[in-house]
Amino acid sequence: MINARVVQATPDGGNAQHFQDQAVASIVFVTPENSTRLAINNAFMKETAAKLPNNVYPIRVIANFKGALNGLNRSDLCYVLSLPDNRFGRMAPFLDLVQGMPIQVTQNVATAKGVANGTLGILEYVHFPTGTHYRLVRDGASSTIVQLPSQSPDYALICVPRPHAASIRPGLDPELFPVFFTTKAYKKANIKLAPAPDGQPRYVKSAPAAIPLCMRGWLDRI
Question: How far apart are CA 114 and CA 119, in angstroms?
């Protein structure tokens, strides 16, 4: 049902008291299986959106599928966009972004600078090109109103713990780091669709590009 990743190993030996004393310092993150994770994501975003000020909505950013979704019918499109990020080479098909939301980096963006796959942080800012327009749509899965931008963002600034790193720009907080929408998936996705009317198999092949992060609403610390 879940995958567990121990961030700091627990001590060996049979000393129960020693184990209890050290357990507080040991952290395990659990990743639910896909359907549960998507349900948690929807619930997390719904609750988050409800706490936003009036007329402020999450921004939904669709990954760049480079034309691979062109020509799909509505049913196919909904199916593809409902799939989890592990079906697209660790690149989410879309992201609902709220300033200040907890995030996890999903690729080794700059390991030498402390921004690696699995790094936890906070979304500080998303930069869109000048002239970007937004329209409001209601998401059927979460019943949440989201903003759809007319253009993809250039980059996002994330805040990650980098205690020994230098600032990327003079005067900027050293914990702020940019991640770009042009980040490519690790591998090409091969998504099987419903058969054609004549029974022939159909597939979508794409290596989407997007911002290399995901919502941390499904990541539980125990």
Answer: 8
Give the amino acid at 4: A
Q: Residue 167 and residue 173: Cα distance in Å, rounded?
A: 6
Q: How many CB atoms lie within 10 A of CB 179?
A: 24
Listed in order, strand segments (DSSP E) in 80-152 are 94-97, 102-105, 120-127, 134-139, 144-149
Read off φ and ψ for residue 20, nearest 5 degrees.
Answer: -65, -40
Mark whether 19 and 92 lie in a shared domain: no
Q: Are residues 105 and 17 in the same domain?
A: no
Residue with tokens 């125990």: 222
Quick: pLDDT tens for 140-176.
777 889 999 999 999 999 999 887 778 888 888 888 9
Q: Give the range of the structural domain holding residue 174, as residue numbers without chain letter.
A: 33-221
Shared domain for 49 and 2, answered yes or no, is: no
Please tell me the predicted confidence (pLDDT) of residue 159: 93
- On the question of pLDDT at 222 being above 50, the answer is no
